[in-house]
Amino acid sequence: MDAHFITGTGTDIGKTWLACALLRHWRDAGMRPAAFKPVLSGFDPQRPEASDAGALLAALGRAASVGELDAIAPWRFAAPLSPDMAAAREGRTIDFAELVAYTRRCLPPRGNPRHAERASAVCADNSGPILVEGVGGVMAPLDESHTVRDWIAASGLHCVLMAGSYLGSLSHTLTALEALARVGAGVTAVVVNETPDSTVALDATLEALSRHAVGIPLVSIARDTPQPGVVRLAALLCPEIV
Fold first, then answer.
1. Is the Cβ–Cβ distance between 68 and 119 less than 8 Å?
2. H/E/C letters for each residue in 93-145?
3. Which of 34, 157, 182, 238 has its CA 20 to 30 A from that of 2?
4. Catalytic site residues?
5. Which whole number is the average pLDDT over 138-145?
6. Which class for 240: exposed (0-12), middle (13-18), buried (19 or more C-beta within 10 A)?
7. Which domains are present in the chain?
8. pLDDT one-digit tens code per residue, 55-81
9. What is the pLDDT of residue 34?
């Protein structure tokens, strides 16, 4: 079973778009993937289909019902803030150990997905790749002492790091890679999502990264023609099928 964590150099970098593109590609290939967005900020219960979790469910061919949302996004917060701040607004906290345990329960063969209280509805029918989408960037705080980086490392998942091609992205990307390396988190690929109206060309960003991120596959997502990049990444994450 192929499972990966989708993270980014920051918020609004395209993590959900990428996850949805991969899910649709695998479904078109006859696979039955699963996806989770365990922690979600900026959630409007009046418009669940407009949330990141709603987009993932749509890509899976599922409705954004309360039951489905509980299965893939159990920690939902209204404020569009970092998870620790959004939780505090509601007088809540994220139990890091519970979050890690939930994530592991979603990932066979480490555990039987039918035993996951909230994840079983999605996992039980799954026989394909699994994606866990993070929240914000690699170093987004989850509580007083843990970040998304810690979540990735504790879950034992390799990750896909999504970056942009804007001016400054090279520093953000290399800093994120260094942060992940410090906790031993494996990086399967760096995906560079072309930034609209950037003063830096997509190819130039990739060429510069290749000199510093040696040994890590780089995948480009061109804004006008994104599908080739999606297909290449899908093959890297799930080599059994292109």
1. no
2. CCCHHHHHHHHHHCCCCCCCHHHCCCCHHHHCCCCCCEEEECCCCCCCECCCC
3. 182
4. 37
5. 98
6. exposed
7. 3-237 (3.40.50.300)
8. 999 999 999 999 999 999 999 999 999
9. 96
